[in-house]
Amino acid sequence: MTDESKVSRRHVLTVAAGVAGAVTGAAVIGTTTPARAAKAPQKAVKYQDTPKGDQSCENCALFEAPSSCKTVDGVISPQGWCMVYAKKPA
After folding, report:
1. What is the Cα 8 distance to its own chain's centre?
2. Distance between CA atoms of 2 and 7, rounded to whole angstroms?
3. Cβ neighbours of residue 78 closer than 8 Å, sequence gap 6 or more
4. 3-state SS, residue 52
5. Higher model confidence: residue 36 or residue 90?
6. Contact in structure between 51 and 77 (CB atoms under 8 Å)
7. pLDDT digits (tens, 9 = 90+) for 8-33
8. Whose CA is closest to 51, among 18, 31, 21, 77?
9. Residue 40 to residue 70: CA distance in whole angstroms
10. Per the confidence metrics, is the pTM higher than 0.70?
11. From CA 8, how far away is CA 26, in angstroms rounded?
């Protein structure tokens, strides 16, 4: 066997990793439903049904009217508040 015909272990692993990545990427592209992150339980974010000062769910960027949130699970009051509050941009 000559040096030119030898294939390094590093080269084999690099090619294998590339193939695995391509297969994974193709599998993700072929799915019909997007992956969704799990929502946080209300208790974990200290959700309350009352506002905290001028901060309330209805003026939070994560609130989805009439009664849900992009990041918190369960029924959400527009007058509620939690730790993930993010003021809506002006």
Report:
1. 39
2. 11
3. 56, 57, 58, 63, 65, 66, 67
4. strand
5. 90
6. no
7. 677 655 665 555 554 445 455 555 55
8. 77
9. 10
10. no
11. 27
